[in-house]
TrEMBL record:
One of its GO terms (molecular function) is ATP binding. Residues 5-230 form the ABC transporter domain. CDD domains: ABC_DR_subfamily_A (cd03230). This is ABC-2 type transport system ATP-binding protein. It holds the Pfam family ABC_tran.
């Protein structure tokens, strides 16, 4: 299995505060990866480490088999769309494309021009006069025309309205298929990730709590509802992710590879948002990080 990003015990510290700790992930090539977690969980730090904008405090990270940003050739293989999709307000759309061509050795001018036309951007308009959705499309165009092997996006649609968000994600998915990209996308909007991602990483309290293929994660997590029960009484192969109780009833989210045959439980599958929330809920402790093996 080829990895586009591999981190081993990766950590980043600012002063006394760890922004990311003991991060071990292995992202396979050809995936659209959703990176999710609460504010301050370490998502942006991980993405900046992957782009070479930050140096690790501990551990190591490789991207496309090399050290991030170690050479111009390595830089050219990774595209990055930063949070709030920054563009230069005083430059026109055409200026941005000319700048992209000067800065990126793998620049594809045909792709850039065709995409600008397809999304309805006027080459003569200044970026400062564009709507939020148009600026996001311009930033995505710049990232794609670089012709990267890995495209990293940090909360690119957080400030967009639902229509602009849908158009951005649709364009991203079309480009992913057309150019055979690997993508890592961070977002608070799990509903968006559910539509486009086939791999998931959940960061909580600066640590990876969950990582794996979305289909596998959903197939191995279940909600159990039944008479009140101490979670420690469950079989050893049922890892309790979260638990809540009333006087008479327990509701548990568990991970297990085995069928659940206990007739006392009503067993239901989880949606992706339910799964993410179970790992993010600070009221219930996650016993240990979970990384499921990826099957090719």
């Amino acid at each position: 299995m080829t990895s586009v990003l591999r981190a081993q015990e990766l950590g980043k510290k600012y002063g006394r505060r760890w922004a990311l700790r003991e991060c071990t992930v292995d992202i396979p090539a050809g995936r659209v990866v959703g990176l999710v977690g609460p504010n301050g969980a370490g998502k942006t730090t991980l993405l900046k480490l992957a782009c070479g904008q930050l140096e690790p405090t501990s551990g190591g990270i490789t991207v496309l088999g090399g050290r991030p940003a170690s050479t111009p050739a390595q830089l050219a293989r990774v595209g990055f769309v930063a949070q709030d999709t920054p563009v230069y307000a005083g430059l026109t759309v055409a200026d941005h494309l000319r700048l992209g061509a000067r800065l990126n050795p793998r620049w594809d001018p045909v792709l850039a021009r065709e995409r600008v036309t397809r999304v309805g951007l006027d080459p003569g308009h200044r970026a400062g006069k564009l709507s939020g959705g148009q600026r996001a499309q311009l930033a995505l165009t710049l990232g794609l025309a670089k012709r990267p092997e890995l495209l990293i996006l940090d909360e690119p649609v957080a400030s967009l309205d639902p229509l602009a968000r849908r158009e951005f994600l649709q364009g991203l998915m079309e480009a992913t298929v057309e150019h055979e990209l690997s993508v890592v996308l961070s977002s608070h909007l799990v509903s968006d990730l559910e539509r486009i991602c086939d791999h998931l990483i959940v960061l909580v309290d600066s640590r990876v709590q969950l990582a794996g293929e979305v289909d596998t994660l959903l197939a191995t997590h279940h909600r159990l509802v039944g008479p009140r029960r101490d979670p420690d009484r469950l079989p050893a192969d049922q890892h309790v992710v979260s638990a809540s109780h009333t006087d008479r009833q327990s509701t548990l989210v568990v991970r297990t590879d085995s069928p659940i045959h206990d007739p006392a439980w009503t067993v239901t599958r989880l949606g992706l948002e339910d799964l993410v929330l179970a790992y993010m809920d600070h009221r219930t402790a996650v016993r240990r990080p979970v990384a499921l093996e990826v099957q090719r």
